[in-house]
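Structure, all two chains, one model.
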Amino acid sequence: MKTISDIKRFIKQWWKDFWGICCHEWKLIAHDGGVLIIFTIGALGYPLLYNLMYYNGVLENVAVAVVDDANCAESRRYIREVDATRELEIACHCATMEEAEQLFQQRKVNGIIYFPKDFGQKLARMETATLSIYADMSSFLYYKNLMMGANFVMLHEIGKIQIERYASAGFTEEQSMQLVSAIPYEENNPYNRTFSYTIFFLSAALLMVVQQTMFYGMSMLAGTQREEHHSFARLPSQLEGAGINRVVLGRGFAYGLLYVAIGMYIAFIVPVLFDFPQRGSFWDILVLLLFFTTDCVFFCSTWSSFITRRETVFILLLVMSPVAMFLTSFSWPTTSFPFFWKCFSYLLPSTFGCQAFINLNTAGGDLSTIQPQIIAMTIQGTLYYLTACLAVFAENRFIHSEKVQRIKAKRKAVLRRLDTKVKITENNE
Amino acid sequence: MWKYVKAVAIRELRIWAQRPIYFVGSLGVILFGSIFFLTFFKAGLPSKLPIGVVDYDRSSLSRNFTRQLDATQLGEVVRFDDFRTAREAMQRGEVTSVCVIPDNFSADIQAFRRPTFTFYVNGLYFVGGSLAYQDILTMINLTSGAVQKQVLTAKGVSEHDMMGRLRPVNIDVHRIGNPMTNYGVYLNNLLLPGLLQMMIILVTIYAFGTELKYSTSRYLMETAGGSILHAVSGKLLVYTLYFTAIGLSMILLLYSWLGYPLAGSIWNMFLDMFLMILACESVALTIVGLIPVCRFAISIGALYSVLGFSLAGFTLPVEAMLPFLQGISTIFPLRHYYLFYVQEAMFASGFAGWYQEAIHLLLFLFLPVFILKRLENAYINMDYPKK
């Protein structure tokens, strides 16, 4: 009977400690303005801001200048058709290349289409006629639009001219169609029909906000605790060295609960506000959020334990935001990652979480689609849980000892002396 | 005056010696970031993108098509037995696209029944998706051309006349500023300075904020002879020299060592970088003056500097954004750096091209004027919360 009551007492104590630590952490968060800025402006505001920024993800009607030296029926038709595409807009008909170049330099146009003098003649002689395009490479979207618009019109024109030529060679219309488009094709871009920048960027960025803001918030708090010579992970005093799980789970739960709420806001509410595609089922996304948040919590617990001063986390690790973003492979494909960075990307929960979110929410998969990422996050989360425990253990055992305290006090004294020294030299001068 | 400025600068250097974060920390971060981006995009363009092929036809023609697609530099074919598994692989992001070669494809082509070739692209992985799209489109047009060529040869059309028939119009593309469509050149030109602007803003805010945080601001004011102007100039002198050294090395690294395309003069790029550094410092000083609490100021600085990347407009052009954001984009020094860089490095248009951006960047220098008094009061009275 004794053992049962022991177990009961243990559970009660465990729960009390766990809950105490959790509430303590909430109190710290609520009393820290800097962390609140990160959690509100960062986690709640950024998803809205990025949505606003990339509200029109599709660049339309890029201005181009035309220099038509050929001045023939075909070139004029080509120009009209370019103007009619969604991608491009003829902003200016220039008489000379110099004039067009000037507009190009002034950035009034982002491309030039040039028809050489012999364009019409070559077409009449049934040769290959070449036109030139000058593309502004300052943003790849200009280039993409210019290429897509011009190529689309070119393919269309090729078809038209070929049919004319075959007709003049005595082919029937049916015969020439069979030759001109021997293999008609049908292209589909099911998940992002217009190659919208918004859909591609936000799919990756939304969950990145979860990881990064949690990390900065948690590190700031850990740094503050260290600065104030507390430990970020004090064990309940009555336990005398035991109870690491309680600390890790208690702190983790405080952030986990907060971030499941923030995650739900990011994954369910923000997309509705901006008509962002939501193709995954509610429950599947919720499962992903739970796995991802848990993984992030232990990831942050582990790495934030290296932070000794509050503000340094931004100076040292803000750079990780763009780095982690590129490591999700949203832009540069995973298959082209250098080996080292591929390994490095496995350290971050976002690598798996963002990919899973892209595949689940935007490509409309189900849980089986994101199975590899879920498994990876489980393994990663478990490892980070162990390292987080190790960090708490080390913090209590070695780092937060009196000796270190003394060194810290000494350092502070040196700093203070430094200022007085400067003052004294000042006075002497 | 010079005496005080010098004293403050020396004091700052002493602090550097005490706290490695200023020098070692920031330099380490910039080095890490630069090495990351430079090595990450080293290939310039991705190659061997996985392209799924579902071959229902299994004819020599379809196998030939698959082999040809596999042999392109961009693509690498992954074969699937049915569309379902291929679609699932695409949804998982394992392949960038899926081509479906229908049953009787070869026979239909021979009989001129014009079978439809269908392909699917995953547009969620931007670069991979759009490059695979191009690659597949090229292959289809080539195959279609081959069919035409066969027929025309059979009809007795000469080789010379053939080209005109097969390809009446051709496009000759000139890519201004990035002739090889190198993705690394495109992004690193802005990502590296972006990284620097981020560090400048953070470190400057930290340098001014810690004086309040550790209550050393009165000593600072004493060193500066009681003038905020001396204090600010002394501190900024050190940081300007330090960041200018980094910034100019960055320009040298990009345009001289790595040989990134630079149409204009490297001296003007130096100027661009220098002006951006000054502008970023002014912004940082303004933030810390408006909010003389280190922890708030640095959080705001972090949020601000991350936005600079998007609002510079080198990914999604600013003119595609909502009008009010087009206005907001002008308050980011990186935006003006980018416009300056386009004029100088891409178009070589010289002073006439970029003078407006230079003026914009210089205007940032007036920002701190409004907050100097406030910062002075904060430094002397120390009446802001430290936590």
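Chain B has a mean pLDDT of 92.
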